Amino acid sequence: MTTVKHDIGRVLVVVIDREHARFFDVEAGDAPAVELPGLHSPAMRGGKFHSDRQGGPGWGEREYHGRIREEERRHVAAVVDRLVRLDQEREADGFLVAGPGPSASALMHALPPAIAERVIGTTHLNPTELTPAVVARAARTARATHEPVVEREILAEVQKGLGRGRATNGVHETLHALAQDQVGTLLVRPDVRGSGFRCAISGRLVLSDAECVAEGEAMPVADLVGAAMQDAREHGAAVIEIHDAEVAKQIEGLAALLRFSQGGGT
What we know:
- 37% of the residues lie in helices and 22% in strands.
- By secondary structure, it is of the alpha/beta class.
- The strands form three sheets. A five-stranded mixed beta sheet has the order 3-2-1-4-5, sandwiched between helices. The chain has a four-stranded mixed beta sheet with strand order 6-12-7-11, sandwiched between helices.
- Strand 1 (11-16) and strand 2 (20-26) form a beta hairpin.
- Mean pLDDT is 85; it is low at 1-5 and 44-57.
């Protein structure tokens, strides 16, 4: 089952060109961008390749371009190393990669999977001509663009999992899976709220008091969805509120991606 990151709080932004890389930390909401120490990899100095013409025609040019490619490779590797260390220090939810020309593309191809899977977008920014305010706007735009796409991916996972016993869609089925500690990701429509009950002995949440027979007193719960979200988090599940209107229409109050199939398999 695909793991999808939805709630994007902290975003680390890297803006790269052939010689420079600037890094910014942008927290959730309207928080300003905080610039972090950058990198500068000076380009090769001197003439282009004329002084290297010691062999046949074109030999010096090949040598020159080979050195340029090696400098670019080392620069990108240094940026990747810095991103990995920043992620360890700051635990980013997402990454935004920006830069002019081919620099951002080269960095994207070099990112390790643990970072590449959290990239929420790419954009064109010049590291020598930008401000933290511009970076913060770019990060907010990337978040807003990214979340509906991820919600559609999550819905596709639910729809695929329903036929395999790896997902639920509906309050009753989802509460049952939650009581069995099957829920890996709980999906919630924020516009759906209602009351229910918690069985005193088993502790499980139910829609009607009749479901608590042999499980103790049925204790009223005013906000059943909120209680389900709390239970899910306490059991280590991710909780995602679905905001995209088209996706939310297909969630019947609560849905879930399961840790293991309802048939008991993994």
